[in-house]
Amino acid sequence: MYEGIVQELIDELGRLPGIGPKSAQRIAFHIVQTRGFDVTRLGELLMEVHDKVRFCSLCGNVADEDRCGICRDPRRSRTSICVVEEPKDVAAIERTHEYRGLYHVLGGALSPIDGIGPDDLRIRELVQRLADGEVQEVILATDPNMTGEATATYLSRLLRTMDVPVSRLASGLPVGGDLEYADEVTLGRAFEGRRLVEH
Amino acid sequence: MPTYRDEAVVLRTHSLGEADRIVTMLGRRRGKIRAVAKGVRRTTSRFGSRLEPFMVVDLQCYEGRSLDVIQQAESLGAYGAPIVADYAAFTAANAIVETADRLTDEASQQQYLLLVGALRSLARGEHGPSLTLDSYLLRALSIAGWAPTFGDCAVTGEPGPHTAFVAQLGGVVADAVAPPGAPRLTPDTIALLGALLMGDWAVADAAAPPVRAQASGVIAAYTQWHLERGLKSLNHLDKGIKLDPSLRRRPRTEAVESALIEAAAVPTAVPAT
Ligand SMILES: [Zn+2]
Fold first, then answer.
1. How much is the ipTM here?
2. Are the Cβ atoms of A185 and B258 closer than 8 angstroms?
3. Which terminus of chain A, N or C, has fewer Cβ atoms within 10 Å?
4. pTM (two decimals)
5. Chain B residues within an 8 Å CB radius of A160
C-alpha cells in the first residue's frame, strides 16, 4: 500500500479491464515519475471521450453524433446487417475491407450463468430494424466461442420467423497454423464449411 | 514446479488480461480447479475450443503460487458444440454447471460422474433439456446431502402419499404439519419427481407438459432454497420460441410484432413456495 492519492490512482487504474494490480502500479508510477508525461492531454481526452462519445441510435456502434459514421455513409449498402457482440468487432471487420453493409452491435453475448438473457442485449432493436423489409441478409458474426455460438443459435431461430435470409461467419482453421494442432471442434467446423475448389 | 494431471469438466471461464482466461473446472480426483489458460483467446491458441464450458478434458497443470497454469488439455468429450446448437440445451447446461460450481468445493467423484453424464445426455439430446436439468438438480443436491423426499412426510415420517410440498422442510409433508398456503402437487407430479430423482427415464419421458412444468417449479424452488444466493441461470431457461407456420405469409409488420412478443417472452422459473 502507498500513501493516499497514489494508492487511490492505483486502485482506480486496477478497476480497468485487463489491468491487474501489478500493471496498475506500473502505470501509476509512470504517470507520477515521468517528467515529460502530458497529464493534461490525457485528462482532457478522458473528459472529452466521456462527454462526446455515445452509441449510435441505429446500430449501437460508438458514435460522435446520433448515428455512427457507418450508418451515415451513403455508400454503404442498406440491404445487409452484420450482427456483432461489441463495437471492437465492428472495427475488426472494417479492417478487412470485405464488407460494405451495415452493422448491429448487440452489446454482448447470451450467458445465463452471468445473468445475461435476450432482454439484456439489443435484440429487440435488431428485430425492429428488419421491419421495413429493406434488409435482404443478416450475417451473424458473434464470437466463435460457446456464448457467441449460443447467441447465433438463438438469433437464427428467432429470425427464421421473420422470413429474412440468415448466414453465419465461417469457422475454420486459423491461417498460418498447422493442421495437427487444430482442436476437434475447429477441425470439425472446417470440414462442415469446406467448399469446392474452382478450376 | 509440481505438476498434476486429472480429468476435468470446464464449468466457466473469465477473461484475464489481454488474451488469457481463468478456467474453473471440476476435476474427477481434485475437485474444484481454477487455472490460467495462457493465450487461449487468440484464434491461434493451441488450446482451441478445448477449454470452453461443457468440455471434458484430460488436463495437465503446474501449481503456481496463486493460480495453477494449464500446460496441456486434450479433449475427452466435446459436448459444447451440440449443446450450443440447441438454445434450450444451452440454458439447461448453464444451470447445470452453475450448480456444480456451487455444490462442489471438495472432490467428489460422484458429483463429477453425475455432471459428465448430464452434459453428455444434453449433447446427445437423449431427453428434453429441462428434464435432464431437473434430474441433475435433484441428484446433485442429494449427493450434497439434501435429498428431498417425495413419499413419506419429510417431518413426521408418516407414510405417504402427501400432496403439500415445502422446500424448507425437505419435501412433501403430511397435512398436519403443512403450513397454510403450501403448494399442492398432483399425484402425476409426485410420480415424475420420484422418477427424476431415481433416473427412471421411461416414466419421466412420458410425463405431460403441465406435469413437467409443475415439477420444474418445485425443483427450482428446492434448489434456490438450498443454494443460498440462488442460481442466475434458472431465470434464463429457454422454453422455446413458438413457431407459427402462418407467420411467413403474414404482412411483415405483423410478423415483426409476433417476433417481438416471442423475444420478450423470457420464461422464468416460478418458485412453488
Ligand atoms: Zn450506426
1. 0.83
2. no
3. C
4. 0.83
5. 243
